[in-house]
Design goal:
3 domains; alpha+beta; 44% helix; 14 strands; 6-stranded antiparallel beta sheet; single chain; two-stranded antiparallel ribbon
Length: 636
């Protein structure tokens, strides 16, 4: 029973950040643990309040609750069961605004600095996302498969529990949270991450708390008086209103035609505070209101259009929320339940049981009961709508006072438009200047094709490929060879399966085998018998007897290619290619063979020009190779 309840608890959207705070508590008594946790919770709330009073959360706010060994300490999924030490717990959905996630990391660093002995763990749907930010500086053993439960924040610093590299068993990489917390408490120096990793996170968070204000945008909106009064009383409600409007469905659209709660007859200009993310979402959400409802927008070139257009969208968002205040008694038509049910299926909650079977229906009824009892605390809740309806009934306001507050000018929103040059500058500031080889119409074509060939011949593994010239870049931290199976197409080793299931590969034998297939040559021995003990190297012996045949095919193909060049030379197609000196074609007067290098360079440059600065095949192909295209010099 407990396992099923915990599956029901764990279902959530993917846009979440989950955090645990572990204070030093030695007592095993439940009441004493709860009292100690409550004292730490009060400390945390006082510290956090200093920075969050003016912060505008995108979806959920930062919130901590008490968890002891007994209450809610069981973490369960299909593979493991684990008990956590007494701690404070929270989970926040951040939606489209990733800044909320990093602001929470800032708060956790702050809390671990100011509260002695406090250890924090934070992760999201991607796992240990702090390590992603510092990916260039991780220890050699670290990868996504073995870092779970190994990353913590203590005294404001990042701590990573090292892996015992002497044991390569995958199960040994898994670490229990209580063991990790104990390790940091007992050996804080040994677990301290490198200065490079620390600096990565510090640089990511360095603009806080000043960034709180710089991330806001203020604009005037022509709003129904009820909406203006609600936002004056509780500015944070702008976030759910914008989100529900931008994610509206046909049912919500019908609600916006009625405008039962916020009719457009009485409106005032109000100064509204957004985050830049919310403002961008609302601005770029297209909406044409129904004039029969009472919306009378001016023309788009009117000075009043911007404020009125914003006001219509915000009012519709509040109308949708208010209409959702009364939860449907039939949860089958509840959008929240539909989303929740789909997440349960993804979590394999029903264990592959036959639909409508007795066990399936029992699990389904438990899920429905849990959803109905907890939807006010889940993200699918109509609680916000209920709050808005109560504010409509209870708020006292004067229209004259609302009008007086709209005299301040709007913030400049030119930041919505980013030029390609500004984007390049932002990327350089974030990731540094990348070393490029500049290519233009005057570049040496041979060196250009050599660059591409070098990249194509470079060995790649499962983690991707890096350009040979960049492997030993001084800006790249030294990286060792990972202990993983790698297949190299540049070695001359034989195909063998060793005791540790490693595979070595003979590219020459493989090439010969493929050539056999292409030439319809069937070996005369049993090398094609899958049950035989032969390996790929046997193909080389078969091919050796046919070397003369391969040489003949090669020479014949060369003759065909030369003949084709000669025939195309006199046509319009042939004239379109760049030529080089006719070495090897003395029998044809004035014949010049095609210059492959020059034509390749020319065609790629023309492709790049046609992109008009946008992403395209040429820039996407050459960018990872470290090749930068420059066609601004001339059009020759």
């Amino acid at each position: 029973m407990a396992s099923k309840v915990n599956v029901l608890e764990s279902v959530r959207e993917d846009d979440f950040v989950e955090y645990h705070l572990f204070p030093p508590i030695d007592s095993q008594d439940d009441k004493e643990q709860e009292l100690a946790l409550t004292r730490v919770l009060n400390q945390c709330e006082k510290i956090v309040k200093r920075y969050t009073d003016e912060y505008l959360w995108h979806k959920d706010e930062f919130k901590l609750t008490v968890r002891t060994w007994i209450s809610n300490s069981l973490i369960h999924d299909s593979e493991k069961t684990e008990y956590l030490p007494p701690h404070l717990y929270g989970v926040t959905h951040f939606g489209d605004n990733i800044e909320d996630e990093w602001f929470i990391v800032f708060l956790l660093r702050l809390l671990t600095k100011e509260i002695d002995g406090l250890i924090a763990r934070v992760h999201d749907a991607d796992g240990e996302f702090i390590l992603i930010e510092a990916a260039d500086y991780l220890p050699l053993w670290a990868d996504p498969n073995n870092c779970e439960n190994r990353v913590y924040i203590y005294q404001g610093n990042i701590h990573i529990i090292p892996l015992d590299t002497s044991d390569h068993l995958p199960e040994m990489a898994q670490m229990a949270v209580n063991e990790a917390v104990s390790t940091i408490q007992n050996n804080p120096i040994d677990t301290l991450a490198s200065s490079d990793i620390q600096n990565c996170i510090i640089n990511k968070l360095k603009d806080y708390p000043d960034k709180i204000q710089s991330s806001l945008h203020h604009a005037t909106a022509y709003l129904p008086v009820g909406v203006a009064a609600i936002l004056r009383h509780k500015p944070g409600l702008i976030a759910p209103a914008v989100q529900v409007f931008c994610n509206r469905d046909p049912v919500d659209a019908k609600t916006c035609k009625a405008m039962k709660y916020f009719p457009p007859e009485n409106r005032v200009n109000a100064r509204v505070t957004f985050t830049k993310c919310l403002y961008a979402m609302l601005t770029h959400s297209k909406y044409v209101p129904d004039r029969r409802t009472g919306w009378n927008l001016p023309k788009s070139d009117s000075p009043q259009f911007k404020a009125q257009n914003l006001g219509v969208k915000i009012a519709c968002g509040f109308e949708i929320l208010a209409a959702q205040a009364k939860p449907s008694q039939d949860i089958e038509q509840d959008k929240g339940w539909v989303n929740y049910f789909e997440k349960l299926k993804e979590k394999n909650y029903f264990r592959g049981l036959l639909e409508h079977s007795r066990e399936y229906n029992d699990l389904l009824n438990k899920a429905k009961e849990y959803y109905i009892n907890h939807r006010d605390s889940m993200h699918y809740s109509p609680a916000i709508g209920q709050e808005i309806v109560q504010l409509i009934k209870n708020l006292d306001f004067k229209i004259d006072e609302l009008k007086e507050e709209s005299n301040l000018p709007d913030d400049d929103d030119s930041w919505l438009n980013v030029s390609p040059e500004e984007l390049d500058k932002m990327l350089e500031e974030k990731y540094g200047q990348k070393k490029f080889v500049t290519v233009n119409n005057n570049s040496d074509a041979a060196s250009f094709t050599e660059k591409i060939s070098s990249f194509l011949n470079h060995v790649s593994d499962i983690d991707g490929v890096e350009h040979p010239d960049l492997d030993n870049s001084p800006t790249r931290p030294p990286r060792g060879v990972k202990k993983r199976t790698k297949v190299s197409f540049a070695s001359g080793t034989k195909t063998e399966t060793t005791a540790n299931n490693r595979v070595s590969f003979d590219p020459n034998a493989f090439s010969c085998a493929v050539q056999n297939i292409l030439n319809f040559v069937i070996p005369e021995d049993d090398s094609w018998d899958l049950d035989s003990g032969s390996d790929m190297s046997d193909y080389a012996d078969d091919v050796a007897g046919n070397e003369e045949m391969y040489e003949g095919v090669k020479n014949k193909m060369q003759e065909y290619m030369e003949q084709m060049d000669k025939e195309l030379a006199a046509t319009t197609i042939g004239e379109s290619f760049e030529k080089k000196n006719g070495d090897g074609f003395e029998d044809i007067e004035s014949f010049k063979p095609v210059d492959i290098d020059v034509n390749a360079l020319k065609n790629i440059l023309e492709s790049y020009k046609s992109q008009l600065g946008e992403a395209g095949p040429s820039s996407n192909m050459l960018g990872p190779m470290g090749v930068h295209l420059d066609v601004s010099n001339n059009d020759d």
